[in-house]
Amino acid sequence: MAVNYKNPLFEVVRNPDRCIKCRVCERQCANEVHKYDADLDKMIANEQNCVDCQRCVCLCPTNALKIRPNENQFRPNGNWSMQLMDEVYKQAGSGGVLLSAMGNPQNYPVYWDKILLNASQVTNPPIDPLREPMETKTFLGKKSQKISYDKDGKAHYEKTPYLELDVPIMFSAMSFGSISKNAHESLARAATALGTYYNTGEGGLHRDFYQYGKNTIVQVASGRFGVFKGYLDAGAAVEIKMGQGAKPGIGGHLPGMKVNEEISRTRMIPMGADAISPAPHHDIYSIEDLRQLVNSLKEATGGEKPIIVKIAAVHNVAAIASGIARSGADIIAIDGFRGGTGAAPTRIRDNVGIPIELALASVDSRLRDEGIRNDVSIVAAGSMRSAADVVKAIALGADAVYIATSALMAMGCHLCRSCNTGKCNWGIATQRADLVKRLNPDIAAERLINLVTAWNHEIKEIMGGMGINSIEALRGNRLMLRGVGLNQKELDILGIMHAGE
Amino acid sequence: MTIDAKNLGYDELNKMIKDSADEKFELSNVLGQRYIGAGMSGKEIKITGTPGNALGAYLNGAKIIVHGNAQDAIGDTMNDGAIIVHGNCGDTTGYAMRSGEIYVQGNAGYRVGIHMKSYKELYPIIVIGGKVGDFLGEYQAGGIIVVLGIGEEKCPVGSFCGTGMHGGEMFIRSENAPTGLPKQVSCSEATAEEKEQIRRYVDRFVKHFGNNTEELLQSKFWKLVPNSANPYKQLYVSN
């Protein structure tokens, strides 16, 4: 083996009886895998470059292509997986930190798959959502505790800023830079049509998208890219990014090569310069400091917009959330360790943080125990893969969820986890004009709307089966959940009983 | 409008300023009230006393003049305008400021100009008359930071100056160059030509606080610039 030999991860299987040498695959592949060899009069493949994004497979007019795992194997070893060996070779060849994208793909337990939902039988009959009203509208923000009535019976209560969601699902933060302008536009339009929100991420708000402001959450991260008064005023809420599930304790870094003219204008930084968002906000070292940022944002926006604080799910997440609830924030977003990213050091992505299921349950319990649960809403993020996950999250204590990976999939993503290369063949995680134009915002927005609408139907159906007719009544209703194959400690943390109990 | 800020909470004080149609304000007895002038444009606020943290955060064109010391995070994410402090100021002065100018007569704390950035015509300036603490210009991505070190015998910057700097410039007035600079920062004695670049800001400093531009500019200045706009380029290997 040559020292720098890269064992291809995938094998390109081309059926010669079907291939008509139309070269669509060649034109579609930004990784330059496919090539027509005129001398041989056939298509050849450089498999080393293949990331298994499935673009060529989907567009091959004769179904001549398959991408499958490379069958070439190193000598099997229970301790040294092929992947680990490959990573050693990469680092030995480059001296670089391993960089990956999207969520943690490792085989850690998925608690959603070990939680089962309840349904009504005989007593407390199920509700048919097709003929009875079923409320999926959700409000995020502080819930006023004191209501007083004047002589005329008119209610008085403290009015605090809130977000109103027609569906308990929002699109999580993805910056313009990590994803393309067309992807942002699709999310913005879908959020508007669905009566929910998308999130700018930390890359600023493109001037074309100010029109979607009332369905936009604007993010403020440590690098403060594109943050100015007009940006803060444009959104319906402001999110302070303290952390991200895919890379807790690590900041963001958009390489200069992706900072083209439009990104430069939106982030308000020079073209070609790295956009560095360090892990910490260098003015925040305590809950008091966080309170200062929360309050300064409230001051700057006239106190009219709810402030979200987003953190990664880490070991002491409950105590941190308790602090955030006391910092004046209106909403806490918790991002589990399976949440996606445009780029993260592999070792961080695969080894840091905890599952959202456990984090969410422990935060909800902690805030209830301390009597401050109504001071904040909780948004759960970090891999909600289906309507069932959403229902389980709400029953564990979430007010709403953020989705992003599934939203990207609705737009065409096949989870090849190569966003960091900037060569996304689906036009999502790229800034190359020829690739970006492959993503049609009309179609992508419609697919996003379809996805969330379908999930919302499923949520109604599942809730109906339980005899529950509103998100409000489902929230924190852990009696609707049972664990299977979980040990007592896991059940205790999740605050649920085992199936059969 | 004049406001006696004694015993006023920050929210009350800031609301009075925001709700008023006046363009000029004089605040007296200010004692620790935070967020004064947050996001403000078009107004001028004169402060006597000690304003609290995050003075002029997200400032968007307003002018703030402090007769007294200012605390931490003045001009946080400032987009335009000016903050002039006749005294000292605290940590993270001008955090991520993108444009506008900050002048401080005395000393400033840690992390001055951290994350300062620029974009085309937006170009922020910080001028500190005295000395600054550690981490001056950390992650600086644009703009100019000038430290005049007036009355200082030693180099007026602390340790870890320019850590992560990848844009902009720093000018430090001192006989001796700052030490312990990171690899990606180049430090050289500023030429007469380069010093002309900051003349107008030194002039404004002198106009605000006194002193002599010619004399100040005749001294030795050290100019710090990053030698890469992409400091982390070689760090990663795609996996």
Low-confidence regions of chain A: none
Task: Report the mean per-residue pLDDT of chain B as an integer.
Answer: 95
Shape verdict of chain B: globular
Order of helices and strands of chain B: EHEEEEEEEEEHHEE
Counting DSSP H or I runs of 4 or more residues, the number of helices of chain B is: 3
Spatial shape of chain A? globular
Radius of gyration of chain B: 18 Å
Helix content of chain B: 10-25%
The CATH class of the largest domain in chain A turns out to be Alpha Beta
| Fraction of residues in β-strands of chain B | 25-35%
Individual helix count of chain A: 16
What can be said about this structure in brief?
The complex is a heterodimer of chains A (501) and B (239). Chain A is of the alpha/beta class and 501 residues long.
What does this entry look like structurally?
The complex is a heterodimer of chains A (501) and B (239). Chain A is an alpha/beta fold. Chain A has helices spanning 24-28, 55-59, 82-94, 181-194, 229-234, 261-267, 287-300, 317-325, 346-351, 356-369, 387-396, 405-410, 433-436, 441-466, 471-474, 488-494; strands spanning 10-14, 34-37, 42-45, 65-69, 97-100, 115-117, 138-141, 147-149, 155-157, 162-165, 169-171, 198-199, 216-220, 237-241, 252-254, 275-277, 307-312, 331-335, 344-345, 377-381, 400-403, 481-483, 497-498. In chain A, the strands form eight sheets. Chain A has an eight-stranded parallel beta sheet with strand order 11-21-20-18-17-14-13-12. In chain A, strand 2 and strand 3 form a beta hairpin. In chain A, helix 4 (181-194) crosses helix 14 (441-466). Chain A is globular. The model of chain A has no long low-confidence stretch (mean pLDDT 95). With 239 residues, chain B is an alpha/beta fold. Chain B has a domain at 88-226: 3 Solenoid (Pectate Lyase C-like), CATH 2.160.20.60. In chain B, strands 1-2-3-4-5-6-7-8-9-11-10 form an eleven-stranded mixed beta sheet, covered by helices on one side. Chain B is globular and about 50 Å long. The termini of chain B are far apart. The chains are: A alpha/beta (501), B alpha/beta (239). The interface between A and B is large, with 47 and 49 residues. Strand 5 of chain A pairs parallel with strand 12 of chain B.
